[in-house]
Design a protein that fits this description.
single chain, 652 residues, alpha+beta, Helix Hairpins, D-amino Acid Aminotransferase, Chain A, domain 1, OB fold (Dihydrolipoamide Acetyltransferase, E2P), 6 domains, 5-stranded mixed sheet, 24 helices, 24 strands, globular
Length: 652
Amino acid sequence: MSGLERMQELIDLLRKASEAYYAEDREIMSNYEYDRLYDELAALEEETGTVLAGSPTVTVGYEAVEELPKERHERPMLSLGKTKSREELAEWLGDQEGLLSWKLDGLTIVLTYRSGELFKAVTRGNGEVGEVITGNARTFLNLPHRISWKGELVLRGEAVITYADFEKINGEIEDVSARYKNPRNLCSGSVRQLNSGITAQRRVRFFAFSLVRADGADFGNSREKQFLFLKGQGFSVVEYERVTARNVVDAVASFEEKIPRYEIPSDGLVLTLDDIAYGESLGATAKFPRNSIAFKWADETAETVLRQVEWSASRTGLINPVAIFDPVELEGTTVSRASVHNVSIVKELKLGIGDKITVYKANMIIPQIAENLTRSGSLEIPSVCPVCGKETRIERENETETLVCPNPDCDAKKLKAFALFVSRDAMNIDGLSEATLEKFLARGFLHTYADLFHLNRYREQIVEMDGFGEKSCQNLLDSIENARGTTLPRLIYGLGIPNIGAANARMICRAYQNDISRMLAAPVEELAAIDGVGPVIAGTFCAFWQQEKNRADLALLLREVRIAEESFETGEQPLAGKIFVITGSLNHFENRNALKGRIEELGGKVTGSVTGKTTCLINNDSTSGSAKNKKAKELGVEVITEEQFMERFLEN
């Protein structure tokens, strides 16, 4: 293969990987592999003196997705040149002073403020055209809605989700296959939601890293003074250190020491010249500005042996590969497992049992396979599902291959579906863990959701099962009987309709006043018009009820349960227009979700963070020094106890 042919091959590979990552929030190759191929392409271009059309070394990103309005940036948003050499940073800096900061791993946003108000928020997109997400930006936890500066202000920053919030949000997604692979993917999907209410639930934060323009301001030719100005306006600014060529290597080491305890995802550092005029005088290449450079950590890798690939089936039918290898030490911890994500990556790595592989931690956090040194390609893709034994198939979408189990009766699908149905926010049946459900499914006790209400038929067999006895069996049957009395939103949520959470179910049921026939016959356009629903949720809701099996399952269920009657006010609801935040433990309501549900029933809204629009913060420890209490005090938002809330808003 000639050098030009290899260059074209590399361009095609990198283009597909970038399009999947930036436009579709998917990963078809690791960051390690992408960097390796990119460096190979750059070296070939240097060697041949040729740059082919479409090369990622001279193009930036890909077109924005279609769901959101698009807008052209007033200045192109270029990528940064990069290095993994600490000494090269010192050489690059020369006799200048610079600012060394985290390179945060989220979604880049451009904000415009006019007359002190947030006017516009646009994603990076392809560097020239981005997506307008102004409504979603207003839900970012730490973003000021109003600032003291009245001239036009344009800045850039990174929208991120912390590791703690990522783990919490992912942990609430019961279907493992539906969980997000990393905080960056979760953040990207959250920021680009059509429904800003969903964005608000994701606890997105914004950190400024560049001031584009502040009309009338004088920063004394200093980037650091720009940062200090932004801090003074209430923005969170990316953490940085002022450096020179003499201390930049030590500063990099200082940042490195913070990684294990740094709560915000980062994939390196950025070094920017403090002298604004000098930096701008250097100009830019077709892709890189010359006033900044990115530093990427040299990944710590370890060689090991692949011993097994575990194929894990899920409720949606996806069968996900997980590599199991001899334990190795990486970044201070022992690792022995790494997700391989899909069939495409299995094939790309040419995996085989017994192969020598190198592994690393992406961003020093997530274990990944870097390279397969043996590349035997002998790993067999399972022809049957590891759970039900039925034939699998490989599905191809957007050039990514995934393994699926098409069997609608697969126990993996049933187990996860039943687990959701009996969960606290759905039918709330105590005593039915996944382990117990798995036993019941294996013995043929359960085929449809309605079968749960006839487990008394198997009482004698259940009593004899491990972990059960007369008392525990009776407790379970009593819990099932109690669950017969429920609400329609709980029932709808428990059915596991894609994209339909507990709040969405309540909105839809309220809109149709619990008229099931109208709900099932509702057209997409009508559902989409419901406040908080939108076209995506409406589409999956309608598609679910077009399947006869789902309608039949609901009909069977309705014979077993008693749907509580609800009164729907035709006039204005008592809490309409009011916004609440709930924190801490509760005394009268079962949990925060129960209180949230009651507020929403009465027309109010519940958000995750205190803003100037919050009506009240509900906290039984109203004198605590918690962050939410402090924020409420700063903004003049009243903090009330649960009892005060009930007296004021629930008692007539």
